[in-house]
Amino acid sequence: MKTTNTGTERRIFRKSREFKPIINNIIPGGGHTYAKGDDQFAEFYAPYIVKGKGCHIWDMDGNEYIEYAMGLRAVTLGHAYDAVNKAVFEQMNEGTIFNRPSPIELYCAELLLDTLNNGHEMVKFGKNGSDVTTAAIKLSRAYTGRDIVAICKSHPFFSVDDWFIGSTAMDAGIPQTTKDLTVHFYYNDPQSLEELFKKYPGQIAAVILEPEKEIPPKDNFLHKVKELCHTNGTVFIIDEIISGFRYHIGGCQKMYNVQPDLTTFGKALANGYSIAALVGKREIMKLGGLEHNKERVFLLSNTYGSENHHLAAAMATMKIYREENVIQHLYDAGDMLRAGVEKSIKELNLEGFFGLFGKSCCIMYGTKDRDLQPSQPFRTLFLQETIKRGLLMPSFIVSYSHTQHDIEKTVEKIHEALVIYRKALDEDVSKYIEGAPIKPVFRKFN
Ligand SMILES: Cc1ncc(COP(=O)(O)O)c(C=O)c1O
Q1: Which of 74, 282, 319, 337 is deepest in the core (most CB within 10 A)?
Q2: Is it the case that residue 446 has pLDDT exceeding 50?
Q3: Alpha-carbon distance 367 to 373, whole Å?
Q4: 263 CB less than 6 Å from ligand 1?
């Protein structure tokens, strides 16, 4: 292994390095979430995390980090947040699941509808974003009697394409006949959707998209999508798994005043406890229920679909959003971080080489090489140098627990990492990265 002396505090990663082959031998991919994978972190700097409190986490070797991904964006308040954990413990002591629904299922659904305040009528809980987005599609197909689904080609990943290298589509195991049922349109391009409706008249069951990624909707794009859907008898679904309770307490749909037919929430709903929600119009949602004379949709049914303590976590989390200025804090902390990093970018002449994107509550970064091409070696270098300095930063995602002091310390450490980045641009990046460059995470469609 090549080593570089960067003058950073000496952190030891021995236990994590030894653990890596052992966990990969038993667990395919070495973990349970794609974005946490070994191929997403610098080869010798991929720590295994044993605990967290607020925005601080600790690895197997005892190294402490400030985290800027916050449990894949699920933890908005902070790790092991006392008020949420208290609600969870109290509910756990009353039992977790029973063979009949519990009143808390209604109370949590009512609180969610009231918090979203966007005219939705019914709720069905699941555990993951994938559960509820899949359920939204199934319901739309049953409701319309159609099979094709239109998804936004610019999402779920980057709409600032020139900064990122796309990975190849990971669709092994999906039959071609299933793939053929998905068609694509582009974000902020209503004409691309109009063309799909012309090409597949009366055949599109649903249009699903994230309301906003790095680039906001322009010229009432979301309203235009809704109008096109309704003119064509198609269900309009907004996926707020990321934006919900982060961009705005009512999601982007409230921020932009657009009501979808169905919508999904997940991350940020319960501060890291496993719960997601499909929310929407009674007319469509009721097909998953008992009170109609149509064929019933087997909508969402999981053994753990409504674990009471996770519902308690969601209720406690929503109450905090309602009572405290959580979302404003996310924007303020993100603004401070962005300002500090942009100052370093300027001072080190890194404009165009290291870029920040998206709303302050949800900042992503991109890395380019000296030819201004998106670069995984430079992403690897940044991750490596920030991890060495006590920052776990695959993104710049902040939480309610990030204090001014945390951000100031972070900005200092990022400056040091960017000094190395500058040197690597001036010399050769391979001199500075230890091990193999990481793989692209962001899938691009061809
Ligand atoms: C926009 C969006 N929708 C759905 C999902 C799937 O959510 P989950 O990983 O909880 O199944 C994700 C996951 O990151 C997402 O970003």
Answers
A1: 337
A2: no
A3: 8
A4: no
